[in-house]
Amino acid sequence: MLIYVLKSAACLAILLAFYKFLMERESMHTLKRFYLLGILATALTIPFVTFVEYVEIPVPTEIATMEVIKIPAMTSHDPEQTPVDYLPIVLWGMYLLGTFLYGFKFVRNLAVIIQRIRKNPKYRVHHIYNVLLSESIVPHTFLSYIFLNKQKFEARQIPKEVILHEETHAKQKHSWDVLFIEFLQIIFWFNPLIHLTKKAIKLNHEFLADQAVLNKGFKPTTYQNILLEFSSNPFQPSLANAINYSSIKKRFTVMKTQTSKKSIYMRSVLLLPVLVILLYGFSDIKVIQTQQSETQISSEQITPSQANLTEKGKYYEKVTFKFKDKNGNINRQVKYSELSLQEKSNLLSPPKATFKIKRPFQKDLNDWKDQNKFGVWIDGIRIDNIKLSAYSPEDFGTFHISKLAKNAKN
After folding, report:
1. Which of 77, 87, 181, 235 has the fewest CB atoms within 10 Å around its CB?
2. Containing H/E element for 381?
């Protein structure tokens, strides 16, 4: 668990640094929104990625065994007790306590918003609801609800720019991003990078809303003065999107920035090697060892037993052999007894070929006993699957597995 947390934090730190230095002050706000959500998913996923590497190891021809004799230890009347490690208990207790506190704070803030929606008058404009509150607040948005001061709203003292700003938060569904990062913050409350990412996401929401206002033709200087006026209220809701005074300077700077398509393309290209490095550096590699003999042996060294040869001969006595010419036409059809001695020898002897030792494991032999899934041939003769109990892996020089056809099953 600790290794996963460290890997995930390292990935998020690198991707967030890339955003801070190369993307935050650029005007590609929609791309930045998906980038910030994507780096969270990437940082949480990369440590789970596992690459499998197969390594061949030689099959040992002989395994030496050694019997270990355990000598009883001297015991005393007062047995020594193993000390209890309380550190994991303390750490898990601290984590669960922090998770509970952050979860409680989230539920409480959500309950406050729901209560305000239910108890205050609402005016619907298309799919957006204006919730009018009696207290003096900064206009803010949660989902499709915009919270405004009732007195200023009815007196038409809230500028159109501010209303349009908040409507952009609602239409672009910025609250879902905030809910997602709040949920991650409950689980990873101990990671300060999650808090920084949350701050970057909410700031980019403001960039998007500012861009929507300016795209409607409002003058930047007038709009900036309005932002300064409405950002002086200290109340800042946690789950909602609100005008924030601490981010005003960055927002004013970004309003004047125009990022070219070439610049966006170059930053996207630079991101690719970063992702490759993260994937290679923080993923896991699983090494699977496969047994492979280093010794090449010929079939002449492995001769079938006399019993198997006799069993083969009895089997072939019931078989009719067909011989074809070069054109594929059958020109000879004889029984086993009519074959020449050389032809019988070729049938009963293994082929003259070299191969590598490939022995099955005991688990394979146990699996092959299932006659509903496997048909078993040894030295070319079909046997009952249960007869595999009489064999051990060392009895085999090689084996081959192929799909069992319907006719073979019959």
Report:
1. 77
2. strand 381-383
Tell me the C-alpha to C-alpha distance, in Å, between residue 212 and each of 19, 206, 215, 344: 22, 10, 5, 89
The closest alpha carbon to 398, from 358, 354, 363, 360, belongs to 358
Residue 202 CB burial class (10 angstroms; 0-12, 13-18, ≥19): buried
Residue 85 CA neighbour count, 13 Å, CB half = 4
Q: Which residue has the tokens 């020109």?
A: 331
d(CA 213, CA 223) in angstroms, rounded, equals: 8
Measured CA distances, 30 to 19, 67, 180, 265, 343 (Å): 13, 69, 17, 14, 78
Taking only the tens place, the pLDDT of each residue in 87-122 is 888 888 898 998 999 999 999 989 989 998 888 888
- Mean pLDDT, residues 58-83: 51
Closest to 254 (Cα-Cα) out of 216, 217, 224, 219:
224
How big is the chain, counted in residues?
410
Cα four-point dihedral sign 375, 378, 380, 381: negative
Give the E-state strand segments of 184-231 in sequence order. none
Q: Which residue is associated with the tokens 């991650």?
A: 184
Coil/strand/helix, residue 241 = strand
Tokens of 198: 């949350």
Token look-up 């070729």 returns: 346
- Using CA atoms, how far apart are residues 121 and 125, in angstroms rounded to an integer? 13
Euclidean distance between CA atoms 70 and 111, whole angstroms = 65
The CA distance from 108 to 102, in Å, is 10
* Per-residue buried b or exposed e for 133-158, using 16+ beta carbons within 10 Å of the residue's own CB: beeebbbbbbbbbbbbbeeebeeeeb
Judge contact between 148 and 141, C-beta under 8 A. no
Measured distance CA(354)–CA(141) in Å, rounded: 77
How far from chain centre, in Å, is Cα 131?
41
Question: pTM of whole model > 0.70?
Answer: no
Instruction: Assess contact for 232 and 188: CB atoms under 8 A.
Output: no
Segment 312-331, tens digit of pLDDT: 666 667 677 777 776 777 77
**Coil, strand or helix: which one is 286?**
strand
pLDDT digits 0-9 by tens, 351-373: 554 556 788 888 888 888 988 88
> Rounded to an integer, what distance in angstroms lies between the CA atom of residue 137 and that of residue 134?
9
